[in-house]
Design goal:
Blueprint (H helix, E strand, L loop, with lengths): L1 H15 L2 H11 L1 H14 L1 H21 L14 H17 L6 H16 L5 H38 L4 H30 L4 H14 L1 H24 L3 H13 L1 H20 L1 H6 L1
Helix pairs in contact: 3-12, 4-5, 4-7, 5-10, 6-7, 6-8, 6-12, 7-8, 8-9, 8-10, 8-12, 9-10, 10-12
Amino acid sequence: MSEDNRELDLDKDYKARGPVARFFISGWNNIVRLMGANALFIIFNIPAIVFSFLLSILFLPVLIPAFTTATEADGSFVIATDLILLLAVGFITFLLSGLLVCVGPFQAGFAQVYKDMRNGTSFSLFGSFKTGLKAGWKKSIAAMFIGMIISAILLLAVSFYMNMHTTVGTVIGAVFIVLLFAFILVQNFVYQLIVSTDLKLFKIYKNAVLFVLIRFIPCLGAGVIVFLFYYLIPFVLLMSASYLTLGIFIFLYSFLVIAWVQYFLSYFAAGLIDKYVAVDNEAS
């Protein structure tokens, strides 16, 4: 009886804390599951990694000159092969971890894992993954292709405008870069909406976009976190070009960072869903 009271007191204490504290407490209590989810995310997304590599072959030769002035005396652009490979790894990490390119049904499974984790219910990693996969595979397949198509269009726009090397081109290119990061938030929201509501896919995307617009400032903060962990930190670690930083990159992004950031976006999305979608979901 005393043990039940103790668990009840702990639960009350947990709920009395702020959302940031609850996020870190929940994440730390489930650190092994998060590490497992991170590793499984990499393994299950091997087809997406291959597709991302093909996109890197297509876009990196255009994007690299747009963001650098490293040219030869004759105006030709030259860059070392090993540097290109490191940039390709960073490009793949960005696309994959941001869910711009991923295996949709598997991501629905991970979204269910994050949902059960933040709800504090007793669950198993594979049990929740199977539940999400089974319930959301149809919508997530469509979301997967939507993500690939829109990402390719945004990358094409960034490549085109940044290579104009004019003030107008740079400004427009920067706008598309912002849209690309905003779309990362949208895709993460979409997968959480898939496992949390019964809405049609069109309404799911509509709500995901509205989240970004209605809660622009909080979403801007989330976008900064995405920028840091999905772009800036990988870039710094890879461009340091040492075995130590490469080892740190491999460990962090194979076992920790991707799942933690996705769990953060899941936690963030949950508050938006509870506030803005609960009534619609009950009516649907």
